[in-house]
Protein 1
Amino acid sequence: MILFWHPLIISLIAVMMTILGFKWRKKYIVIYALLLPAFTGTPIMTATRGAAGAIVASDVVGIALFGLLFFIPREWLRSYKLKLHSYVNMIMMFLVISICFMGLFYNFISIDYSQQGNVRLTSAIPLPILMAGFRMFKLIAFASYIYFFLAVRLDERDAITIINAIITGCILLALAMILTRLSVVNLSLAHADIRQVHIGPRILGLTKSSVGRLMCVGFVLSLLRIYQGGKLFNLLGIIVTVGALSLSGSRGSLLALVVALMVIYVLGKSRGILLGTMGAVVIGIVGIVFLNYNQDILQAWMKTVDAETISTASSRTIIWKETVFYWMSNPLAFLVGVGLFNFSYANTESYYESAHNDLLTAITEIGICGGLFYILILFSLAWFFYRQTIHTSGNLRWHYVCILALLLGLTVSSIFEPTFYLTVSNLTFNRIVTVLFLIQVITPVGEINSTEEIEIENCSYA
């Protein structure tokens, strides 16, 4: 049963535009067609009575893209295979094993078959098998984005197009948040079955934390681009993303933005001080203006500094303790994990699809080795971007300062809410940031082609 028609229409238009982009040899059409649908989490349909079985626009686009990988124009393809491609293959194989073996085995043991009634589509297939199939669907829809951008030869113009596409999506999402919170029009667009109390209201089907993190992404990328063209467009991006972030009530996202601005201050030299100060002023002024129009959100922010609220155990603290206790009582799960996307079936007192901490979620689902590898990926990215700030100058250095600041800000956010690690309801955000950071690693930008001799180990020829 179709819950909302507009995400289905969006996905079909995006697939058609991708096909036309291939035919017309226009990469920018394909880039926008792939990225913009990821800014809505409104379900087309759901296989279960909840968010776990929801199929969104970017899922449909991802599955279509998986088939279209075989029809990429030949002149777009790289003349060599990136070494990173082999690493991605190994990671994907590991995640497939996690779903099809560890997750399936764990679910057959732990699931109460009264839960079969939560399935909408059919009760004939055992729930663990149905869940494994759906998770594979989600993983393929996500992985197709990575394989597309690894296969296609991209230049500086394409990298900038990707950044501009993300800023455009952030602006549209920010406007949806502002219009909804100011009671102009309701654009929450989430079905009743997936409006869980602990998640709170949604905007275009996305949770407040997802919206907040995307606003942080849009803000930093707008700061990055404001020196390099499209000043009015990027200034609009700065203002509306701050307004939407203030109205989201996402404290983790605000913390991510503060950390990002601090990195920009420290590493950005005179430009960082100037734009960082401008950003801080905009945050203060725009935040105050918008919060005056929504007293409920203002009260929510005031609770952040309320001594009684701080001293009281939060739901995050509870779930962190439950997760650690679960490891202690289930050492095998600690070693090998309970399976990708399977955290909610771990032995916790309440339903959560993650531990509200990426590392805890990763260890629970893919084991301690998987959790350590997750940390290694983040550290390698941070180190790579930091090296670029040392070996480059001018606009190129500013580019990498902002990318590093965004990475570190979101890493801090990942301590308190799902950010980088894959969770079902966060896959739309995962698609966007994965493409963004992947492109920064594999695509030469600006002077790096001519004036800098920087070896990129991750991207050496196979």
Note: The beta strands are 45-46, 54-55, 202-203, 206-207.
Protein 2
Amino acid sequence: MRPPLPPRPPQPAGPCPLARQFWVTAGACEVVTVGTTRIGVVVRAATDSRFHLR
């Protein structure tokens, strides 16, 4: 028998906190509706070099 899995951490409430947690960044977020699903899109990252063009 395998030991039980550890409990999952709580999920963020709402699309924008989830998007910020996924991208591990802060910044401006907009909620976009795709079909019947609302998703959070980080549109301006705060101090995150992954989004700067070189």
Note: The longest helix spans residues 15-23.
Protein 3
Amino acid sequence: MPTKHEIRDALLGFYDGRGEVMSRSAANKLADKIKRQRFVTPEFVKVISHGDPTGEQAVNNILRSLGINIHTGTHHA
């Protein structure tokens, strides 16, 4: 299971790879939420750290379906 910091770093790399900015604070918050959901696997980290527009859209769709704002890392009930 990846650590929170590994998830955070993968998220930061994911956004950087897309030419977008995510603050370290937002990445930490989102990493916490992802870690608590317990759906993270090493494969998940590979997916979000790989530059793949179709896969990136899929990850964003999953995060949105969990009520997580992909830009701020905040959860919407």
Note: Residues 12 and 70 are 12 Å apart (CA to CA).
